[in-house]
Give the backbone structure.
Amino acid sequence: MTAYEAVKVRLDPTPRQARLLASHAGAARFAYNLMLSHVRRQLSLGEHPDWTMYAMRRWWNEWKDEIAPWWRENSKEAYNSAFEWLSQALKNWSDSRKGRRGGRRVGWPKYKSKRTSIPRFAYTTGSFGLIDGDPKALRLPRIGRVHCMENAARLVHGRRIVRMTVSRRAGAWYAALTVEQQPDTRPMAKTRRRDYPVGVDLGVKTLATLSDGTIFPNPRGYVRAQRRLRRAQQTLSRRDKDTNHGRGSNRRRKALDHVQHIYARIAAQRADRIGKLTTWLTATYPDISIEDLNVQGVTRNHRLAKHVLDADFGEFRRQLECKTARAGTRLHVIDRWFPSSKTCHRCGTVKAKLPLSERVYRCDECGLTMDRDLNAAINIMVAGSAPETLNARGGDVRRPGLAEATQTSVKREPSWHANAVRLGAAPGNRDM
């Protein structure tokens, strides 16, 4: 079975190429809305339309000279990608009505607006992709050579490109390359930088706390950008949106671009943080244990929803699953009902209640006092390493050499993140 991987690069088009990219995206949007109207017209007449991509292409090739005499200005792939997306959207709607999507309801496809929809189109056939001898450029049919902000050839690494999706977000053009993931014939690494398992406790105050004492603070990118974002949105609300035939003034367009740029920067910082952390974990530890967090349920708490979504726990787990499978690292997912925070990792006593405001875990039985996140990470590590001792009862299940940590015993550790610190590490593991 062939696996695929997505590689995303930012394009650096000239003003002329930017206009051509916008023209291709507009042509794809026009074809999508036109074909959706055609399907709706057939349904209103009591017909049974064939909404497969090939039927749409046949109808388009028959009437395109009369409906859109300018179609030759853009690549045929722009129209074909619109038909592919609409066909899939209609299929999802039809399957949901027949109960084929696990009970999840999918609505009827909506028209794509020029103001709100993301401009995009795709290439699946033709001479698109890398250019020999020019690693920082891509070939786009009907547009030409487009310079890239980074080395695309290094990211593709000689693999075959089967699809290229071009889209515009926050004023910048990106190319998402779908490449074939070749089977890894290299022997899996049997040694890591650290030869013991680790448990990861995700949180809002600290993004990740590891069972060996390493912690990664939560930068809170969205919270830190809220003040700047609020000012930009206030400026946008004062701009005239009724001029220029309902498209808004030029000053409104610039204000909207500024708001989108702030959101794009927040998303880029979050993706960079999660990507580096998951890569470091898979390259450092042979066994990683995490909790099966109910992110959707946690976001129902309106006081925590913003912070949980900013931490992006779901993306953390998704990337960790992909990277551990590729690197040969074992990933253990602990049951979400396992009381990792309430359980004492030394004696196994489970507290009845432990409010979030109580950041230090104090055991009433054995007198253990330590950071609550570190205690939870140790319990997660134990549960992943020895499933038969989920609640750690009946013996000392701590990793040998792990000292009892407190909030005051904080030590710096050289790592990929300048703010990564360790809580109560054993003396023999300080060079890890």
Remarks:
- The chain has a mean pLDDT of 83.
